[in-house]
Amino acid sequence: MEIGESRWVSVQKRTVDSEVRRLGLNPVLAKIGAQSHEPGVIEGMKATLERRPVVMALIGEPGLAIVRRRMEELGYESFRILRQRLERPPWPQGPETMVLFATPEQVRNVPMIAGAIRSPGRSRR
């Protein structure tokens, strides 16, 4: 195949939960990169999310609202990832937002998370 040529390739679709089970993993961090399919990924990792990993994802609208609502239902808080800080909602609308999802316990007990949280519009002095 030459550079610039393309062809269709069949791939088998698997859920995060099935791969975590198959490989015997116990993830503490999950990074989702699903090109606008994040809501489906979240649905396919419910059992993994019960283990409470921290989750990061770059999400665009309208998926962001769907994923935030679902993650909140599962006991997670959401934070926009900015340079050197995490910001609680509400956030300005944008094409894509890098988001960190963490449980209240992780927010309290993980210094890297707790020390980075800011309210919208406030900076550290």
For the structure shown, list the relevant keywords.
globular, 125 residues, 6 strands, alpha/beta, 6 helices, Translation Initiation Factor IF3, 31% helix
How many separate structural domains? 1
Summarize model confidence as the mean pLDDT: 89
The residue fraction in helices comes out at: 25-40%
Low-confidence stretches: none
**Fold-level CATH name:** Translation Initiation Factor IF3
Count the DSSP helices.
6
Write down the overall geometry.
globular
Structural class: alpha/beta
The SSE order reads HEHHEHEEEHHE
Distance between the termini: 56 Å
Rg of Cα set: 17 Å
Report the count of strand segments: 6
**Percent of residues in beta strands?**
15-25%
**So what's the CATH class?**
Alpha Beta
Q: Indicate the CATH architecture.
A: 2-Layer Sandwich
Q: Please give the largest β-sheet.
A: 6 strands, mixed
Order of strands side by side in the largest beta sheet? 1-2-5-3-4-6
